[in-house]
Amino acid sequence: MLIKKTLLVSLVLAAAAVILAACPAQPAPDVNLAVQTALAQTRVAEENVAQAVAATLTASAPTTTADQAQATNTAPAATEASTTDTPPTVDAPTSTPIPTSTPTPTPIRIEINPPPTPTPIRIAISPVDGDDGNDFLRGSFDSNNGRNILLPGFDQAAVGNEPTFRDFINFRVEVFDTRAGLYDGAGIQDVAFKIVADDGNGDTVWEKTEVNAPYCVFGGDAPDCAPAIDLRSSAQWPNPFAGRINNNVYLAEIDITPENGDATQWRWRFFIDSPALVEDGPPDTARINQIWEADGRYFVDFDTFGFTPQLPGQHVHFFWNNVSPDQAGVPGSGPWQLYPASAGGINTSPFTMFTVDQRPPLATAICILVANSDHSVNQGTGNCVDVP
Hints:
By secondary structure, the chain is of the alpha+beta class. The chain folds into three domains: 1-21 and 30-50, no CATH class; 123-276, Immunoglobulin-like, CATH 2.60.40.1220; 280-386, Immunoglobulin-like. The protein has three helices and 20 strands. Strands 4-13-12-8-9 form a five-stranded mixed β-sheet, with no helix packed on it. Helix 1 (2-22) runs antiparallel to helix 2. The N and C termini lie far apart (155 Å).
């Protein structure tokens, strides 16, 4: 500022001196015009000085990268300011696309098969014979004071007074000492099985001792005591006996020894009557295999060999053992019973025409003989079996 003022004063004084020196005798010049001219020249000089100073400052102070960036960044601001009055641009509304129907995917069917429900084990019961008064050792069934044989795989309706095995043989006992617990094996030391032929000979065919429940006659750890002995082929008793199994009546003697207290024995009679085990007899003979009682009637299981009973023709005579064999047909006095009873009548086993009430006082067995068409009998062609 001081430079500007000094320059202005100098220019004014110089202009006045020129005027006075040039025309001393002429009229006085227009001072205002001279001053205005000087001021205009002064402004031009000031502008030139200002430009020179600015150029000098620019040259002496190099522009930094940050300043350049700031200058660059500030440029759009001026542009934005200049376009403030420009109305905002409104975008045209975008048309909403019409949704297309997407096909619903077919659901995948996954079949979930639950595990099969185990088939309940069929178990029938059969009471043992006798009672030694030891009520501490028993099973969970109330029948017969808990003294029963269990028959896995059998329906109760199929078990009569004379239990009979035809296709398979298997059984077990459930027993516990009520003083030790009410579950199979509680307080029991061991159970010993012994099977003997109950045909008068008393041959032992099987023995086994079980120390853990379930107590199965032929062994096994499952409630069904599998596997059972298959009687539908040439069956044998298991080792170490390994003898042939025959159709017969048998007695199971079962000795139960508790951990404390007195032992007891259960006795159970049963039959084996398998068609596969039948030994053919001589031709034109007959044989009673077993007899049992049901509903006041005797059931006589029998076989004939080499012929089929029929009338007229070859047939059989049944009679009580209080009748002599030579009196069991013509010309004997009997009595006897024809079988079949008439032409075309039933001729299959079992024979069921004798009732308990018809049993003669001295009779203990039922007998059979082969008879001819004239009702005479052939001696030695049959046998007798005691009634229960």
